[in-house]
Amino acid sequence: MSFKTLLIDPSLCTGCRTCEMACSLYHEGACSPQLSRTRVIKFEAQGKNFPTACSHCSKPQCLTACDQGAISVQRSTGAVVVDEARCTGCRSCLTACPQSMISFHPQRKVALKCDLCGGDPQCARFCPTGAIAYAPVDQFVMARRRELASRSLREGISSTESQKSVQAV
After folding, report:
1. How many CB atoms lie within 10 A of CB 39?
2. What is the C-alpha to C-alpha distance for residues 77 and 75, in angstroms, rounded to an integer?
3. What is the 3-state secondary structure (H, E, C) of 112-149?
4. Of 54, 89, 146, 157, whose CB count within 10 A is highest?
5. Residues 87, 65 contacting (CB under 8 angstroms)
6. pTM of the model as a whole
7. What is the per-residue pLDDT for 2?
8. All residues at 6 or more sequence positions from 72 whose CB lies less than 8 Å from its CB, including other chains
9. DSSP helix, strand, coil percent of the chain (3-state; round to 5)
10. Does position 165 have pLDDT exceeding 50, yes or no?
């Protein structure tokens, strides 16, 4: 089965945090960045914003770290999800996640992470700029390849131009 994943393009993010509000409203019934499963990291001095969300790893370290069996992979979406009824709040998954995408619910005292909203991620659905999209994994891979190729092309052009200007001197 081919799964979809969240495609994140920080260059399109305006820092509006609509993704955080949509997520927390969907899951918690309240608009609260603290209760959102997706987060926007803001670098205000540089004017940069970075939306972040769980990558739903194919070999999730959070799942392996959970001794309670509270983390599993949802067959229908491929999402790595937390069963709050089984979670003891030990936070082993928080420390195991290599991307630090798991947080802790301040009221329920359980792990808090993206579950792809059951296959209709609200962050992507309501992102007004398209900085977060929900697309097939192969589209994600192709987007990354294009990004790397574009970067290489830009760097190649600027190094060629630099060489020409050095030779002209």
Report:
1. 21
2. 6
3. ECCCHHHHCCHHHHHCCCCCEEEEEHHHHHHHHHHHHH
4. 54
5. no
6. 0.82
7. 73
8. 63, 80, 81, 83
9. 40, 20, 40
10. no
Q: pLDDT at residue 13 above 90?
A: yes
- Name the token pair of 140: 């994600």
Cα–Cα distance, 169 to 166 (Å, whole number): 5
Which tokens hold the place of 123? 């962050």
Element (H, E) at 5: strand 4-8
Distance CA 61, CA 96 (A): 6
- The alpha-carbon radius of gyration of the chain (Å, integer) is 19
Class level of CATH domain 55-101: alpha beta
- Tokens in use for 95? 């420390």
Domain borders along the chain are 55-101
